[in-house]
């Protein structure tokens, strides 16, 4: 099954994006931290930068390989949420918004957060064509 990606008529995507977000939520993605936890690889370090363990927070907020995608995500976050609210968020809060949205937000805001997460995953290309990396 192929879906047209939101706001990007030139791009089509399969259900992979949904699968990747679900895998991140479950700790079953191809991030090093998840693979290590399940004894599939022997190092937690990020293979892209080697600066720290490749956790979801590292992938979303700190890995230098995804600076451009992160800037888009954080800029879009300012369009969805109040600036004062965002300034008080800790890294873990942002990761939780990325993965789950917030049940206290309006449905439309959560839809936008979900689309932003899917866009980050797609644009980062982190999970494309990689088995266990
Ligand atoms: Zn990294």
Main attributes of the structure:
mainly alpha, two-stranded antiparallel ribbon, 2 strands, disordered N terminus, binds zinc ion
Task: Give a description of the structure.
This protein is mainly alpha-helical. The chain has one domain (about 1-125). It is built from seven helices and two strands; from the N terminus they run ββααααααα. Strands 1-2 form a two-stranded antiparallel ribbon. A hairpin with a 7-residue loop joins β1 and β2. The chain starts with a strand and ends in a 9-residue tail after the last helix. Bound molecules: zinc ion. Zinc ion (ZN) binds near residues 46, 48, 51 and 54. Zinc ion binds near residues 46, 63 and 65.
Question: How many structurally independent domains?
Answer: 1
The helix count comes to 7
Q: Average pLDDT, to the nearest integer?
A: 88
Main sheet specs: 2 strands, antiparallel
Number of strands: 2
First-to-last CA distance: 26 Å
Unique ligands:
zinc ion
Structural class: mainly alpha
Q: Are there runs of 5+ residues with pLDDT below 50, and where?
A: 1-6, 8-12
What coarse outline follows from CA principal-axis ratios? globular
The portion of residues forming beta strands comes to under 5%
Q: What's the Cα radius of gyration?
A: 15 Å
Q: Considering DSSP H and I runs of 4 or more, what fraction of the residues is helical?
A: 40-55%
Order of helices and strands: EEHHHHHHH
Lateral strand order in the biggest sheet: 1-2
